[in-house]
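[Primary structure, fold]
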Amino acid sequence: LPAISVCGCCWALRPRYKRLVDNIFPEDPEDGLVKANMEKLTFFALSAPEKLDRIAAYLSERLTRELNRHRYGYVCIALEAMEQLLLACHCQSINLLVESFLGTLRLLLEADRPHLHILATGSFVKFANIEEDTPSYHRSYDFFVSRFSEMCHSDHEDPDTRIKIRVSGIRGLQGVVRKTVDDELQVNIWEPRHMEQIVPALLVNLEQGNSDSPAEQTEVCFRELLGRAAYGHINNAIRPVLMHLDSRSLWEGGSFAVRCFQIIMFSIQSQHSHLVIQQLLGHLDANSRSPASVRAGIVEVLSEAAVIEATGSVGPTVLEVFNTLLRQLRQSVDYQLTGYYDNAGKHKTTSFHEKTLQDAVIKTIGSFANTLPVYQRSEVMLFIMGKIPVPGIYPALGSPNTGRMIQVMLLKSLSNLLTALPSSFLEPLLSFTLMDDPEIRLLVLSILTSLIDRRHNAARITAVRYFSEMCVSAVQHAQRLYRHVFLACKEESNGPSHYQALFILLVVLSVELVSEEVLVDLIRLILALQEMGVTNQESLSVWNRCSLHAVCAAALHVLSQTGPPPPLHQHVTQVIESRQKGAPHLLPESVLCDQPRYQNKPIRRHLLFVQSKVCEALTGSSYSTQCERLNTPYTPQLTGTHSSPVNKFVSGFS
């Protein structure tokens, strides 16, 4: 009994705060925190804030003692008490309480029990959501960044436990970001040393995206992190993403890389989009000597990012974006021809992989161009035209194949910039219709059609047939265009695709420019092409001449239904019906197909479109004033001096 009395006296002599702390622990830990006694402890702490540091230290001591004894129920009770004190206290002394609290969490996170890691993380998240009234000058979260990042990589043998640990790690990182990102006195979470831990930890879980990975929670955290990034933080946040995709070879295939940057572009502030683009462009240059699949993956991401970013936010160096892409295009052509993607000739590549990359670059050029206002797109078109090598002007092209392939690639990239048609752009473009290379001529015809076809009628024309319903738009410097169409038809190396493209161009012109003067000009041009096929002064093959007649028939059939009086359509229909009966080789169905059928024999008058009958068909209508011009055979002009409505109508087009 005396011993018991002594112990009782000793307990009574203990400091009050210790007695209050001891009283919150029940005899059976399963009963949980003694709420009534916790209220007394909280009241005491609020009444005597100078005791907070001692209360916190003693709670930490109790928790450590219970932890060492593996009495985890009491550990939970001690931690809960600390949390309640944190929520209740907003005075200056809270910093003393926080230091003990964070020290306790560090202790739990260093233990070898996963459930303690999860417990500590949950407690940290609650703390992170508390808005403190007083600044903290010397608080460090480095340990928590490191430990939470490590938890995100957990490979615990039990799948359920692994997911719980990873989710806790992600929530912990989210808590660190929330606690530090808006407080200038806290650790700078955007420093590379922190970002290089946080970002890969999130991407690993985002990458797996299955039942074993908390991808949804990860994406929420990643978006929140990026959404809080200021202008000066973007590069530090993006660089670890690029490094992660490099180290895990995730550019190839592209789907995960694209998803990452879709999240990035949708999460950051729109005015910062161009910083991401610049990082990607720099990374593309840095990977110039990587396999084509890696380069293609980066380019695909660039294309998707360009679609997402706000209009015109490519940044201050618009032409540098296109210069980088064109440089990659030129480099890929060199790699394709040499068969190696390095100067040492050690790493092989294939035409297939390089062409895949080239297609991706061309698509990306179009994606970027569509984010620009019209005037900038015109500048970009001229910029690309200036990069197209012309024999005799750019002698340092290397082999002829190199120059030809670069011409083809750059012309393909132009086809994605469907916008204005300035005169300084038209003349050099038209000059390519006269080149010997049939592929280049075909590309130029397609580009011209696309530039004129403002209402996308060409997409409806899948073969050379007879059409009757189209729409309206415009083109500039018509006589130059007519001249180059005429000269392009003289090329012996023209194939079915060329005549298809010529037909589409003539149809688009006739339906886009519903003007009496323009239609008469086109009729004159078509009659001149027919004459070329009849006289054969250019020594074209039989198939080429038959193809010319077929194109003229198809084009006139459409043109005769876009405004001229019915007698013209009747004449065209009569000639076509005569050909169907006695000369089907002069129609597209027979000659412009996989197995052409044609023959070399004189063409009788009733199988031709006759200028006098065309003129007669137009007499008595509003076209009468144009008939005199029909009597003058078309001859190509060297300069566009003709003052047609085309030139007037498109003044706002450039």
